[in-house]
Amino acid sequence: MKILTDTFKFAWPVFQGWAGSIFQKKRVLKFVTIVLAFLIFNLTICCKSYFKVTTLPMASSESVGGLKDAGKTFIIHYDQQKWVLSNTQIQNNLVTGKLDEYKMPPTFKPVRSNRPNRYLTRPSLNQRFLLNEVHLYLSALPLHENNQVSIPLSSIVKIEIYDKDKGATTGSYILGSVGIAAGVLLVLSVVAVSILISGLAGSV
Fold this sequence. Notes:
Low-confidence stretches: 1-12
Mean pLDDT: 76
Number of helices: 3
Structural class: alpha+beta
Order of helices and strands: HEHEEEEEEEEEH
Largest sheet: 8 strands, mixed
Shape: globular
Number of strands: 10
Strand content: 25-35%
Radius of gyration: 31 Å
Strand order of the largest sheet: 5-1-10-8-2-3-4-9
Helix content: 40-55%
Distance between the termini: 27 Å
Number of domains: 2
């Protein structure tokens, strides 16, 4: 009986330390899983790309010609419809070309001219094409045979130029990086403390 009692007295602290260590590891693992989920969520939410809209209230041969020379894609808006203008030429105060169907995927949200607009850069849905678009809003659309158009500059009531918003995009990535760094530091701290506690428990 005494041998059984002595064995129990010796084994019980060992069992307590072993059980406590497992419980501690499970708690740490659960905490790390939660933090990693937060980091992934933070990366998805914070690290975004944005474009801005520059509005020109009037059209001129110089402004439209400069955009054409820069390789911009012209999008024609009229009567709540839009098309891509191909074979674009500018001469005698006319913008000529052919209207083609606009087949690009829609923006993440309706475009707002007074604030940054988000665009997606996922492999499955890459919207970087937006950064090359110029939108021409018309008061009239002279349409000819085979979807050919001759648009007087006077019919262009508004021009919207899409460009990358470097400030908003950089700020978004900085905020995301800070959140990720803080989360990683927190995980490392918790793991280090857990190892320290386990070491102290094992040495008692």
